[in-house]
Amino acid sequence: MKKKLLALGLSVVMMGMLFVGCGTKPAETVGAKDTKESVDTAKGNNGETQKVNLQLKWLPQSQFMGYYVAAAKGYYKEEGIDINILPGGSDIIPEQNVYNGVADIGVTWVSSLMTYQAQGYELQEVAQMFQKSGLLLVSKKDAGINSPKDLIGKKVGNWFGGNEYEVLALLEKYKLDKNKDLKLLQQDYTMDQLKEGSIDAASAMTYNEFGLLLEGGISKDDLNTINMNDEGVAMMEDCLFVNSTWASKNKDLVVRFLRASIKGWKDACKDPEAAGKTVYEVDKSVSLEHQVYMAKEVAKLTAPEGFDASKIGQIDMNAIKQTGDFLKLYNKDLAKTPVVDDTTFTAKYWEEAIK
């Protein structure tokens, strides 16, 4: 029970890191009539519309733009799906909602999903929407942090609660002791500590906190960044997952959902400005400018430069295994080593959807 509670806390904190400045007011669900309705959609191939609840990690924002675009353009309806997009929040854990049947499909980070899988939750990833990590370490140029080696003697901020593993992997790569060579400090969900100088390097998501710095008047030319992808210590983030038992009984529905979602993501990545506007219209708690900024940056994670857009959602098992290896190495509370095989991560639904 102790390990389960620790993992639950990890998942909640992980959700918080992504969404600084994005507001907290409740949002309307998209296509929703009853957000509490548990959906059992195994009924049919009789032509009737089937309802699907999609549980997000957070409030409506461009991090999830592909689903909102697919809904707005009628792609789910074309697949016979009545989509119900459920916003997340600090008190909502996607893994629990999907496992318990409150939602059919969820969005979460791979590292968070793995903590539940390791506890015996029969959850299975079916698509990987972000192909790259969005985590950076950001510093002001006058701090002199031009490479990870320059972190020696510096104050480095992170949100912790599971968000620190990429940073720890980075330190390990450069043989830096987090207790002796630098100070690893608790970071809040703003960038104020970096602005005021109480930390030298701050954790930031490319599509959110980094944008807040720029929107706050700080020039890119005045910042240095350390990118986890470039350093080879990236961990995978936003993915789609299901209760594996439910999915096995609803194979065609999962495929149709993925097909519509992928179409939405392709459109969103092709025209992120329009996608940002679509998301803004869903819930105006975040400025249009920030939603469009987020959309453009999220597109770079979903379909990076040189990536074949026809493969949006593919699962890179090498990247998944790397995430599991880092998670086990640095999460001492993990019940057991994450299992990475076709019971926990499967491309079979995605492969059918892109045919």
Q: Pairing-aware structural class of the strands and helices?
A: alpha/beta
- Counting DSSP H or I runs of 4 or more residues, the number of helices is 14
Relative strand content: 5-15%
CATH domain class of the largest domain: Alpha Beta
* Annotated CATH architecture of the largest domain: 3-Layer(aba) Sandwich
Q: Catalogue the unreliable spans.
A: 1-29, 31-44
Q: State the helical fraction.
A: 25-40%
The shape, in one word, is globular
SSE run:
HEHHEHEHEEEHEHEHEEHHHHHH
Kindly state the number of beta strands: 10
Average pLDDT number? 88
- CATH level-4 homologous superfamily of the largest domain: Periplasmic binding protein-like II
CATH topology of the largest domain: D-Maltodextrin-Binding Protein, domain 2
Span between termini:
43 Å
Report the biggest beta sheet as strand number plus sense, adding barrel if it closes: 5 strands, mixed
GO molecular function: metal ion binding; transferase activity
Domain SsuA/THI5-like: 62-275
Signal peptide: 1-20
Subunit structure: Homodimer.
